[in-house]
Every structure is written in structure tokens, then in C-alpha cells.
Automatic annotation (TrEMBL):
It comes from the Bacteria. InterPro entries: 2-thiour_desulf, DUF1722, UCP037004. Residues 195-310 form the DUF1722 domain. This is DUF1722 domain-containing protein. Pfam families: 2-thiour_desulf (PF04463), DUF1722 (PF08349).
Amino acid sequence: MIHVVEKKDLLIGISACLIGEKVRFDASNKPSNFCIHELGKHVTYKSYCPEVAIGLPIPRPTIRQIKKGDVISVSRPDGSGDVTEALKAYGQKIAKISEELSGYVFCAKSPSCGMERVKVYSPEGNALPSTGIGTFTKEIMEANPLLPCEENGRLNDALIRENFVARVYAYKHWQNLKASGLTKHKLTTFHSQYKYTVMSHDLVAYKKLGQLLARADLPLAEMSAQYILGLMTALKVIATRKKHANTLAHIQGYFSKHLQANERQELCEQINAYREGLVPLVAPLTLIKHYLLQYPKDYLTKQSYLSPYPDELKLRYAY
């Protein structure tokens, strides 16, 4: 593990209903098993329900996104009780104080908290294409483009779940780095720890980030801003088996002078088995970590790719 993040230090924003708070329109909740019982062991949540925060009661009449012309408003189905501006204002308020957050989990399909594909209706009540974004969520994401965000429904997908958690931990590492006082040396060291992580997501970004840090004409503030935007954008790309296998092959090269013929063959077989979908990613990684204990490589030991988050989450067992 390249860095230690304690639970009390890793703060994630979350829709209140997802951790069991009965704040929905019908006084119910939508508890997320993953958020509560798995990720919740490793992070601290800060919960928000924008609808309650702006004064709507529990229970309450339903609200929806209604599109008239190019304008989308949020109100009751009959158009009364418009809360669009109140939700926007609350979103802007939370966005200003959300720098302490390292991620956010939103409630899917909610007119206030949905991250994407929110239902939109015409003033007459006809369903339009579900292209809406929760009014509160939109303010949070636009004000914090680096913040890793997901919604509970998408977290049921093993690849998306792993990707989100990895981004959260990478972003927290960056936040800690900035808080310690950023220098060019620290930035370069940080990048060296994420080289194989980026390689497994986006090879083009891997090359561009290296080129960026090699420039001598950029002030540190501008370079670091471009760097973290490039990194977090690259990490949004879901890593494929082919990209992981390519990254594992690069790492394998560090042991070429140490492994016996049968050991090299075993590692190659594990990497190929993963590439072909026969074993999960944890299989070749476990073997690499075993060889790393036998033949320590300081550069590899510090790679975030090998331990991007607590192993107890077992996120690499599913794909």
C-alpha cells in the first residue's frame, strides 16, 4: 500500500436514504448494502437529503423534472410547488463546503439527486427521454469536476464499483498531497506511484501526463491543475482485461532476472488466463505480490496499482 488512509480521514458525501435514513417522499429509505456494510467499514459518510434540507416534509407529495421549452424545473406533477431554485441554491451551498469530500454517492433516478438518466416529463405529463440530471447533483458535480461521483444503481456493476472506489482513494491521496504543501518533486513522485494505474486505464493519458511533467515552461500551480484533471479523467475510463494484462506484463518484466523458468511460465499463464476471462484479476496480482516479497523492488512496492484501496474490500475478486 503506497499510502494509509484511515476511516476517519476519508469522507464521502452520500444521499441520506442510501444509508438508511427514512427521508424519501413516502418516508422510506433505499439502503445500499455495499455502501453500508462494505465500503462503510473503510470510510466516513456525510449524508444529505436536499429535499428535506429545503423544507419539504416527510412524507411529501412527489416531485418530478418538467421540461418546458429548453427549461427544466422541479415541481409536483401538476406544476405547483416549484422547488427548482431552492434545490439549486442548496446544491451551490454544499458545493462550496465540499472540498473535504473525497467522493459522493447519489441516489439514482431522483429528480434532485440522480446523476444521470433522470426521468423528464412534459407539462402535460407525458414522459420525455430520460436525460435529466438531479438539480442538486448537477450543482455539486459542476462545481467539483475532480470529485469522484457515482450513484447507487451503477454501483451494482462490479467494474463500476471498483473503478469508483479506486478513484476515491486516488483523489484522497491527492488531497493529502496538496495539504502537505505541493512541490515539483512531490508531484513527480506522486505520478511515479500512479504510472501503472494510469496505464491500465488509458495509455494515451499515460503518455500525456508524462509529457506534461517534463515541461519546464509551466508554473507549478498550472502544471498540477492540468495533471490532476488529466489523472482523474483517465481513471474514469474503465480498465479492460486487455489493458490490465498489458500492465501486468510490464510489471512481470521487473522479475525476469530472478524467476526460474517454471515460475516465469506460471506467471505468464496466470496473466493469459486473466486476459481470456478464466480467472479474476486477483489471481495474477497475488502471484506478483508473492514474487515481490521474495524479490523486493522499491519502485513496484510503491505502485498504487498493486493496492489501490484496502484489500478487505475484495473488489478485484469479481472480474
